[in-house]
Design brief:
Elements: H1 2-5, H2 14-28, H3 31-39, H4 49-71, E1 77-79, H5 83-94, H6 99-118, H7 121-127, H8 131-153, E2 156-157, E3 165-166, H9 172-189, H10 195-214, H11 250-279, H12 291-308, E4 313-315, H13 319-324, H14 330-350, H15 355-369, H16 381-396, H17 400-417, H18 426-442
Antiparallel strand pairs: 1-4, 2-3
Helix pairs in contact: 2-10, 2-14, 3-4, 4-12, 4-14, 5-6, 5-11, 6-11, 6-12, 8-11, 8-15, 8-16, 8-17, 9-10, 9-15, 10-15, 11-17, 11-18, 16-17, 17-18
């Protein structure tokens, strides 16, 4: 382990890495149940639900192992939220593609990412982003995942007559989330090792007690059978979908491919920057060493995931949960990937961990990631305006990519208005042009 992951060099131990890997897994294990709901038999995609669950676990394990071994960073991958919505409601719903054809589109996007990565184009795009925007991306992701946590906890509501408001504390699951948040805060402030993981276990235990002793529905599900349903029917179905991929109009196909490319690229870039900043991996210029390897792992996992039978695989912001628990090497990823692989056989046990039990972890990790705010020069409006729009856009648009887009576009506007054109990296023009093209095509 020491030779492979250099634990001492990174100031970590085997125990810490295992706890961090488990913490990351439980923070993102919800995808095992949400992805089958998004892509399953009752959705526009109409995929076999059990097959999607197996594909989700396999692709998450493969992607997480890849990024851990290629980079030695404590990052995790799985089919991305938002990207699965594009797959289901845009490709299969609006365009009417079969899920096999939609998988073919995802495969092509992944192959194109591989090409961009090996040619260095993807790294060049990352290096072209100003340091202030990288810090804003890190903070914005913190607010975004905190929003995910608050929403999952039931502490947010749109039924208050306003755009957003506070949820009801009369809901038992929300009360459990509040308990979990208090427990998480206490454990973190007291600097208990593995605090985030322990808070998830503690909240789950209380949830089980409330449901099985007091008969209160906490969202915990008992297995109908302890025998795992290993459904590999989706494996290889992508290869039957290439023939119909070009049956849609060119404008629609172009819009879909741009959406897949931009959402995956900037969700990944944003997550890599945010997680790397949290772990202290960024250099003095805000660049991430071995970023090519990280993005190559992401690109390979996307195409491999399409072959296995799921929507785009991407790096998860919940990786920061494991980093906050002390994870510093790829061993954290190996543990997380092993948990996903084991989930194919032990998935009934995951029903004992309610979604609200992981929500407090996301909220507290969001607090931790917001520390990058102090490194942004807020007194300089040329820096503050793009940074603010990036940070604000992510949670309010419910999209890392759209937050980055508004930040990048405003950055170009600010530099042009201040007549500092030479400070704009040429690739920023290319990226902003792609964002604008995406938005224009979405209106057609």
């Amino acid at each position: 382990m020491e030779k492979l992951f250099h634990l001492k060099q990174h100031g970590t131990t085997l125990k810490t890495e295992i706890v961090a890997g488990l913490t990351t897994f439980f923070a993102m294990a919800y995808i095992i149940f949400i992805n089958p709901t998004m892509l399953g038999e009752n959705s526009p995609a109409g995929m076999p639900t059990t097959g999607v669950m197996i594909a989700t676990c396999l692709s998450a394990a493969l992607g997480t192992w890849l990024i851990g071994l290629l980079t030695n960073y404590p990052l995790a991958q799985a089919p991305g939220m938002g990207l699965n919505a594009v797959f289901t409601y845009t490709l299969c719903g609006t365009l009417g593609l079969t899920y096999q054809t939609a998988l073919a589109a995802v495969f092509i996007a992944g192959a194109f990412f591989i090409l961009l990565t090996v040619t260095g184009a993807r790294k060049a795009i990352v290096d072209a982003i100003p340091l202030s925007l990288k810090k804003a991306i890190s903070s914005g992701i913190g607010f975004f995942i905190a929003l995910l946590g608050l929403n999952s906890a039931g502490l947010l509501s749109n039924e208050t007559g306003t755009v957003i408001g506070m949820g009801s504390l009369a809901v038992p699951t929300t009360l459990l989330a509040v308990f979990g948040l208090i427990l998480t805060i206490v454990l973190v402030i007291c600097k208990v090792k593995g605090a985030l993981f322990l808070s998830i276990i503690g909240a789950s235990a209380v949830g089980c007690f409330m449901q099985f002793v007091f008969d209160v529905d906490m969202g915990i599900t008992l297995p109908s059978s302890w025998k795992p349903a290993l459904d590999f029917s989706l494996f290889g179905s992508v290869f039957t979908g290439f023939g119909d991929l070009f049956s849609v109009s060119f404008a629609s196909l172009l819009s879909v491919m741009i959406t897949l490319l931009l959402v995956d690229m900037f969700d990944t870039i944003g997550t890599l920057i945010g997680a790397a900043d949290k772990a202290g991996y960024l250099d003095e210029n805000g660049n991430l060493p071995k970023v090519e390897s990280a993005m190559l792992a992401d690109a390979i996992a996307t195409s491999a995931g399409a072959v296995i039978g799921t929507s785009t695989v991407t790096t998860f912001v919940e990786s920061t949960a494991g980093i906050s628990a002390g994870g510093r090497t790829g061993l954290t990823s190996i543990v997380t990937g092993a948990c996903f692989a084991a989930s194919m056989f032990l998935s009934p046990l995951l029903g004992f961990v309610p979604t609200v039990a992981t929500a407090p972890t996301l909220i507290v990790v969001g607090v931790m990631m917001a520390g990058s705010l102090r490194e942004i020069e807020w007194n300089d409006l040329e820096v503050a305006i793009p940074a603010f729009l990036t940070i604000l856009g992510m949670p309010l648009f419910y999209s890392i990519t759209d937050g980055i887009a508004f930040g990048f576009i405003s950055y170009i506007i600010v530099k042009l208005a201040s007549r500092k054109i030479r400070e704009i990296h040429p690739l920023m023009y290319v990226v902003v042009a792609l964002f604008l093209l995406k938005y224009i095509l979405s209106t057609l």
